[in-house]
């Protein structure tokens, strides 16, 4: 297997409480990998460890052939492991297009001169428009970002993340709080941005997980409970037991699956 991201015995303790415990995760290059589990399972902590926002208590992380365990968040991002919303926030008083232009400039390390010259900004226009097209926002280019509906705002966040040209994207609950229509749009978008890169996503909506993810790792209480494709993990009795009472979707999927 061509593994792009591998953790070994990844562990994080907070004052004696173990949030992530001995996690060995292997993500295949080019795949969409889902990380699921009940609330408090340690999913977000895992993401924070992978992007180096948290230092692990023990264990190691390798990304694209390098040991990144001791690196800083910015170094890891520069290697191409990027979490959506990590570096680029959405500025509500800038237009959609301006947001992406600023993200492109920051990606090139020129964050302090972006207000100086319209000419400089103009250079980024073509690339910014192409990115907006990729996320289906080209018709919204001149709206203020703050005026976008919620689902479109998440799409803009993904566009600003794509401005960094990530090798691997981490998405933490990209469809959280969305309407059906927005969920469908984000699913299509994730599928599109996953072409030519790797995606690791935390997602609660199991229909989304089923539709998108090649491989799924189930966490409970900080540990890996099961791993495999959707059909396999959703039939695993331990997974069903871990979810029962907390997420009717997976028990429902089990009942008719
Ligand atoms: N900074 C922290 N300090 C103490 N406990 C934390 C901290 N961050 C997370 N936790 C705890 O670790 C556990 C896992 O949290 P989290 O990773 O956010 O879970 P998930 O994203 O799967 O819902 C929870 O019990 C949470 O309360
Ligand atoms: Mg979380």
Automatic annotation (TrEMBL):
PROSITE patterns assigned: ABC_TRANSPORTER_2
Species, as recorded: Teichococcus coralli
SUPFAM superfamilies the UniProt entry points to: P-loop containing nucleoside triphosphate hydrolases
One term of GO molecular function: ATP binding
Record key words, sorted: ATP-binding, Nucleotide-binding, Transport
GO CC terms: plasma membrane
PANTHER family in the cross-refs: ABC TRANSPORTER ATP-BINDING PROTEIN (PTHR45772:SF3), CONSERVED COMPONENT OF ABC TRANSPORTER FOR NATURAL AMINO ACIDS-RELATED (PTHR45772)
Domain ABC transporter: 5-246
Stretches assigned to coiled coil: none
Name of this chain's protein: ABC transporter ATP-binding protein
């Amino acid at each position: 297997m061509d593994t792009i991201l591998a953790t070994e015995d990844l562990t994080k303790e907070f004052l004696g409480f173990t949030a992530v415990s001995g996690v060995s995760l292997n993500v295949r290059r080019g795949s969409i990998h889902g990380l699921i589990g009940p609330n408090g399972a340690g999913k977000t902590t895992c993401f924070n460890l992978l992007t180096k926002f948290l230092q692990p208590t023990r264990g190691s992380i390798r990304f694209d052939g390098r040991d990144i365990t001791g690196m800083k968040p910015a170094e890891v991002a520069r290697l191409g492991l990027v979490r959506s919303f990590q570096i680029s926030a959405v500025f509500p008083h800038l237009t959609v297009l301006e947001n992406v232009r600023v993200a492109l400039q920051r990606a090139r390390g020129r964050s302090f001169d972006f207000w100086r010259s319209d000419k400089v900004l103009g250079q980024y226009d073509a690339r910014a428009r192409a990115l907006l097209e990729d996320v289906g926002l080209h018709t919204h280019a001149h709206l203020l970002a703050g005026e976008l509906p919620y689902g479109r705002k998440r799409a803009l966040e993904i566009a600003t993340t794509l401005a960094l040209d990530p090798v691997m994207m981490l998405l933490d609950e990209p469809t959280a709080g969305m309407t059906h229509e927005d969920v469908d749009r984000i699913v299509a978008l994730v599928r599109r941005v996953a072409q030519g890169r790797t995606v690791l996503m935390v997602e609660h909506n199991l229909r989304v997980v089923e539709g998108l993810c090649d491989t799924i790792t189930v966490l409970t209480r900080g540990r890996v409970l099961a791993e495999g494709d959707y059909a396999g993990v959703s039939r695993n009795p331990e997974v069903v037991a871990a979810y029962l009472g907390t997420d009717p979707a997976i028990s429902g999927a089990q009942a008719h699956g």
